[in-house]
Design goal:
The complex is a heterodimer of chains A (110) and B (113).
Chain A (H helix, E strand, L loop, with lengths): L3 E4 L2 E4 L5 E7 L5 E7 L5 E9 L2 E4 L6 E3 L9 E3 L8 E8 L4 E3 L3 E5 L1
Parallel strand pairs in A: 2-11
Antiparallel strand pairs in A: 1-3, 3-8, 4-5, 4-9, 5-6, 7-8, 9-10, 9-11
Chain B lengths: L3 E4 L2 E5 L4 E7 L6 E7 L6 E7 L4 E4 L2 E6 L4 E6 L8 E7 L9 E2 L3 E6 L1
Parallel strand pairs in B: 2-11
Antiparallel strand pairs in B: 1-3, 3-8, 4-5, 4-9, 6-7, 7-8, 9-10, 9-11
Classes of the chains: A mainly beta (110), B mainly beta (113).
Chain lengths: 110, 113
Amino acid sequence: DGGITQSPKYLFRKEGQNVTLSCEQNLNHDAMYWYRQDPGQGLRLIYYSQIVNDFQKGDIAEGYSVSREKKESFPLTVTSAQKNPTAFYLCASSNGNTIYFGEGSWLTVV
Amino acid sequence: GENVEQHPSTLSVQEGDSAVIKCTYSDSASNYFPWYKQELGKGPQLIIDIRSNVGEKKDQRIAVTLNKTAKHFSLHITETQPEDSAVYFCAASRVRSNYQLIWGAGTKLIIKP
């Protein structure tokens, strides 16, 4: 099946730990994105990448890092510098104007 | 900065009735307006979109209207069904600038049986 796969679905992080969320797409899309969604809230852009080996900060990049070494993959690392990381994280990709989302990953700090 | 305002934040309608969600945007250069549906615990899915050279677009029970002069666009769902219950997001951008998608805050649509 073509689509965007995010893993894990649920992740727990201890204080001071870095964690990495995986995002893989087989849609052959050039652009990929990471959004954060807090309960009952809208979508906020963390990072985006329009092409391999290039990425740009979104509106709330502090405390996060990404890499784009392959077209299909755009992992997000939530670092210990992110003080309030508990949220629902959405990866997306696009082939122009239409953005397609993955199923999301829940991150909880314990 | 640019923003998109979405109203109402919650909408409750009787099954079979129509639902209307409205968004207003500030960037007059915006020319692409998608609507997404998000079910609980899942990623948003595109349900319909419209470009600025079109005033209305329809897909079965869903329609979107655009008023560029007033800078607002609306989602219309007719003959609502229980499976329409979800959160709906509008967005606006300039063509070929997906990273510049500006999102509304979302509308929780509740379909009462």
